[in-house]
């Protein structure tokens, strides 16, 4: 069964790339997913609502932003954070073949966090903004004028700096169906002849 599914996926990928190229300047990609996360420093697992927006400057360069809304800790009934939201902005370099898009991205960001005081034996805790850095490797398959599949893996580095220091060394996964739209109207596109 797994072999048949792999063959179908490869055939779908191959035939979807034979059509019109969708990756071009001013292509806007919008993505959303539930993103599981693992802190590689202390093995805590979290869940986030993840949103991503990307605009291609050239087929090989884009500007992208990510937002993560903290949903809770997965491997504990009492989470170590009251909240842990994050925002990232950066650039990506794309290795494009037809409508297959493998990319590497670097982003800087901030997190808005507050620890759960009960977990750490504190009488109270304060919220704060912390700097973050991330790198992402991802794959997008553009198969339609308005839709694409995506799978992204993000590695995040940072530290919660209020009340008690906690390292953010997270791996976050996102995958699903994305929406794309070329925001440059056809009448403004340069003639390729």
Task: Walk me through the topology.
Blueprint: H1 2-16, E1 27-39, E2 45-58, E3 61-73, E4 81-97, E5 100-115, E6 128-142, E7 147-160, E8 166-182
Antiparallel strand pairs: 1-2, 1-8, 2-3, 3-4, 4-5, 5-6, 6-7, 7-8
Account of the 3D structure:
- This protein has 193 residues and is mainly β.
- It has one domain: Porin (Beta Barrel).
- Helix content is 8%, strand content 62%.
- Strands 1-2-3-4-5-6-7-8 form an eight-stranded antiparallel barrel.
- A hairpin with a 2-residue loop joins β4 (81-97) and β5.
The biggest sheet amounts to: 8 strands, antiparallel, barrel
Helix content: under 10%
Q: What is the strand content?
A: over 45%
Mean pLDDT across every amino acid position: 86
* CATH topology value: Porin
- What is the SS-derived class? mainly beta
Low-confidence region ranges: none
In short:
With 193 residues, this protein is mainly β. It is built from one helix and eight strands. The protein has a single domain, classed as Porin, CATH 2.40.160.20.
Based on the model shown, name its key terms.
8 strands; elongated; eight-stranded antiparallel beta barrel; 1 helix; mainly beta; Porin
């Amino acid at each position: 069964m797994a072999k048949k599914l792999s063959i179908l996926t490869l055939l779908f990928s191959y035939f979807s790339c034979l059509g019109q190229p969708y990756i071009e300047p001013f292509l806007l990609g919008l993505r959303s997913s539930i993103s599981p996360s693992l802190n590689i420093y202390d093995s805590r697992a979290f869940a986030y609502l993840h949103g991503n927006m990307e605009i291609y400057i050239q087929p090989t360069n884009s500007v992208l932003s990510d937002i993560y809304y903290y949903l809770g800790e997965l491997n504990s009934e009492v989470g170590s954070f009251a909240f842990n939201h994050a925002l990232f902005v950066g650039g990506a370099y794309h290795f494009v073949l037809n409508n297959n898009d493998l990319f590497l991205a670097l982003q800087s960001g901030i997190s808005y966090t507050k620890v759960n005081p009960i977990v750490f034996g504190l009488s109270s805790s304060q919220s704060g903004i912390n700097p973050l850095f991330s790198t992402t490797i991802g794959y997008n398959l553009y198969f339609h004028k308005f839709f694409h599949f995506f799978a992204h893996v993000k590695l995040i580095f940072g530290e919660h700096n209020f009340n008690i220091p906690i390292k953010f060394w997270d791996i976050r996964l996102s995958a699903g169906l994305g929406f794309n739209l070329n925001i440059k109207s056809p009448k403004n596109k340069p003639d390729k002849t």
